[in-house]
C-alpha cells in the first residue's frame, strides 16, 4: 500500500522470488482512481496474474497509502487482506521524492532554450524565514502517522506489517523472512537470491534463470543537501516519528538531528 519512494517496487520484485507468490506487473491503481474503481471488482481481478491454488497474489500502488478512500474500499473487498507498508527514514524519503519529481519534470519538458534552474530541495522545503514548508508535498507524505491512522481505524494492527525500507536496501533477507512469516509462507527466499552490484550500489535479484537489477529509476543518485537543512528537517520529523512509532508499536530508530 506504499509508501511512495520507500522501496515498493524492490519489495514486490523480491517477494516474487518466492515460488508461492504471483504479482501484478504494473501499478494497478484500482482503489485510488475512481475511473478504475468504478469499473468494479471483476476489472480488478482481470488485472491480476493467474495463480495456482495456495499461491498469494500481490500488487503495489504506492498512492493507496495517501488516498483517503482507499482503506475502506479495500476492506469492502476483503476485510481479512494482509497489508504491507514499507517506510523509510522520512527525510531520505522526501529527498528521493524530490529527486524523482525533478527527473520527471526534466523528461516532460526537455530544455530546448535556456530555462530557469529548477529550485533546489533546500529552497522548496524551507520558507524564506527559515521555517519548514509543511505544505511541500514530499515533506507532507513523509508524515506517516497523518495517513496511517485512517488505515488503523479500518484494519486491525495484526493485518499490517511495517517493513523497514532502509534495512531492505542494506540487507534484504531478514526483512523478507519477516514478511514470509507474516504471509504464512514457507521460508524460501535467502541470500542465494541476491548479489550486490557495485556499480548500481544496490542488491540485485537472482533466481534459477536470471540475474537482474531494478531499473535505473530505482536507486537514483540524490543531490547533496545542506547538512543544516537535513538536521532541521530531522528535528521537525522527530515529533511526527514518535506519533508513528506509537501508532505501530515499533520504534524505527530514525535520527532526530
Ligand atoms: N535493491 C534495490 N535496487 C534499487 N532500488 C532499491 C532497492 N531496494 C530499495 N530500493 C529503493 O527503492 C526506491 C524507490 O522506491 P519505490 O519503488 O517505492 O518508488 S515509487 O514510489 O514506486 O516511484 C529507490 O529510491 P532512490 O534511491 O531514491 O531511487 C531505492 O532507494
UniProtKB/TrEMBL annotation:
TM region(s), chain numbering: none
Compartment list: Golgi apparatus membrane
Taxonomic superkingdom: Eukaryota
Active-site residues, Swiss-Prot/TrEMBL: 5
Major localization listed first in the record, in broad terms: Golgi
GO CC terms, sorted: Golgi membrane
Enzyme class, UniProt record, top EC level: transferase
GO MF entries: [heparan sulfate]-glucosamine 3-sulfotransferase activity
PANTHER family per the UniProt record, alphabetical: GH20068P (PTHR10605:SF65), HEPARAN SULFATE SULFOTRANSFERASE (PTHR10605)
This protein's name: Heparan sulfate glucosamine 3-O-sulfotransferase 5
Species this chain originates from: Rhynchophorus ferrugineus
Amino acid at each position: 500500500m506504499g509508501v511512495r519512494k520507500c522501496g515498493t517496487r524492490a519489495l514486490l520484485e523480491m517477494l516474487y522470488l518466492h515460488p508461492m507468490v504471483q504479482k501484478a506487473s504494473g501499478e494497478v491503481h484500482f482503489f485510488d482512481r475512481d475511473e478504475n474503481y468504478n469499473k468494479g471488482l471483476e476489472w480488478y481481478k482481470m488485472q491480476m496474474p493467474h495463480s495456482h491454488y495456495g499461491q498469494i497474489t500481490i500488487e503495489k500502488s504506492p498512492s493507496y497509502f495517501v488516498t483517503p478512500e482507499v482503506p475502506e474500499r479495500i476492506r469492502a473487498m476483503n476485510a481479512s487482506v494482509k497489508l504491507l507498508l514499507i517506510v523509510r527514514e522520512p527525510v531520505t524519503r522526501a529527498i528521493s521524492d524530490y529527486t524523482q519529481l525533478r527527473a520527471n519534470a526534466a523528461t516532460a519538458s526537455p530544455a530546448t532554450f535556456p530555462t530557469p534552474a529548477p529550485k533546489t530541495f533546500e529552497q522548496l522545503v524551507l520558507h524564506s524565514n527559515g521555517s519548514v514548508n509543511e505544505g511541500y508535498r514530499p515533506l507532507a507524505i513523509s508524515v506517516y502517522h497523518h495517513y496511517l491512522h485512517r488505515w488503523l481505524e479500518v484494519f486491525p494492527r495484526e493485518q499490517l506489517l511495517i517493513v523497514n525500507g532502509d534495512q531492505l536496501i542494506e540487507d534484504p533477507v531478514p526483512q523478507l523472512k519477516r514478511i514470509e512469516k507474516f504471509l504464512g509462507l514457507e521460508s524460501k527466499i535467502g541470500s542465494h537470491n541476491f548479489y550486490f552490484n557495485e556499480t548500481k550500489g544496490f542488491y540485485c535479484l537472482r533466481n534459477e534463470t536470471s540475474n537482474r537489477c531494478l531499473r535505473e529509476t530505482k536507486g537514483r543518485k540524490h543531490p547533496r543537501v545542506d547538512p543544516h537543512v537535513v538536521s532541521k528537517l530531522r528535528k521537525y520529523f522527530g515529533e511526527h516519528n514518535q506519533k508513528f512509532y506509537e501508532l505501530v508499536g515499533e520504534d524505527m530508530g530514525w535520527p532526530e538531528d
